[in-house]
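pasting for the record
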Amino acid sequence: MRHLEFGQEASLAQILESIKAVPEKELSLVIAKEALVLKNPANLKIIQKSAASLGKVIHFPPESNPPSDKENIPEFMEGQDVMEHLNSPSFRGESSLEPALFSSPAEAGNAREPVKEKKKRSLFPKLTVKKKGPLIIGLLLFILLGGAFAAYWYIPKATIALYVSPEPFDKEATLSASLRAGAVDVENKVLPLVSLESVETDSLSAKATGKKTVGEHARGRVTVRNYNTVSQKSFEKGTVIKVAQGVEEGAKFTFDRTIVVPAATQSASKDPLTGRNTLITDPGKAEVEVTAVAIGESGNIAAGTQFSVGDQSLLNVEAFNATDFSGGSSKEVTVVSSEDRKNLSESLTKKLAEKASGNLKSKLKDGQVLLEKTAKETVLKETFNKDIDAQAEELTLKLELAVSAKAYAKEDLKKMMTSSLENDVPKGYEVSTDKYELTAETLRVTEDGEVVLLGRLEGMLVPKLAAGEVAANLRGKPLKEAASYLNSLGNITDYQIRLWPTLPEPFNNLPYLESKIQIEIVPK
């Protein structure tokens, strides 16, 4: 049930219009006790019967119950204008035109909020409904005609395609680009650059491929003999002895410690057969432990082998082993080679550089182009888990790589190229902004970081047309006059006019607003 409240200044006509305006079929009306409409009890009966004619039921509080059916309704209540309003076609629903009874849509549509009375409900309070009719109709006609005119003025739009005959254009220019340039320097042909950087970290493993023979050095003991009868011989630790003859000739060993070999002694001896006296030399002797220089079985020398000592001749000094040398062994193992580390570093660097390149491109703003040849790689940290020649089956590298590169704005390049090549464009022509290709190739990067570029502009030359002037000359013109004007433009080959919406012929003009006319220059 909808609840409506009315103040003491509410009129019968206002109450009836309020009942008609709400969609609910069952209504509760509360009217202020001091309201003039309650001075005549028959007004409540009129309200109830009028609501019934609209298919609605009205409930009144006890203090404002309507009179019984036996009571007569006077012919004049609150003025003749109320009766005329009750009998009007608009109140009986014969017209779709409904007066505004509420100050806002929410006030009319909210079923739970009471209708607040306003002191002035009519634009013409001193006029009767009958006198208001022509004014309302006139006002509505004014609004409709004004809206139609506004729509005719503001809504239509047109797209006019001007077809021109293009000529190919392909020019190159050498430009400088610098990080120090804050803006395009057309006069000095300097293009501003920005620097981008990406830091990437990753690890990579690879098999070790180096080969190395490892094993044990043969060891033994030798007796050094000194045949010099004048002086003793001293040999430092590490003195090299060599096998003097045999299969192992040349095999080297070193003294494990320093030794001193005393001088030789001589004694006379009589030969029993000849009876002659002979001198017998008894060499000085010293024993020392030796270690093979090379690893492997080749150092296991048999007993009785003669060795030369240092730079001494065998006539002066020699060495013999009384027992076999032993302990020499060898085998081939896989180790980390310098080539393994180099290859792994190159592979991981390439991988991180590719990843960084993708990240650099993602950092580009709209219209920026990355100069990939300016990319610079810097290894921030490189850690191998194995040293060169270390025995291992696998090698792992952890690498942190920084990649920086320079970029330019395509709009800056376009401005630079257009300015640089403007003398090459024939008079009366311009480079088409729709179909062109703009590129820049890095020729070299100088030591101070400056970049030399080869800019190239490849596209089509089209006749110059002042689109704004064409639109201004066409606004509001009928199609025939517009066609005549376009045909007078000698630098176009054809045109096409598209209007929206399409109106009947007398009204099918181009828009009156220049902003609603779009001019397109189309190479054909």
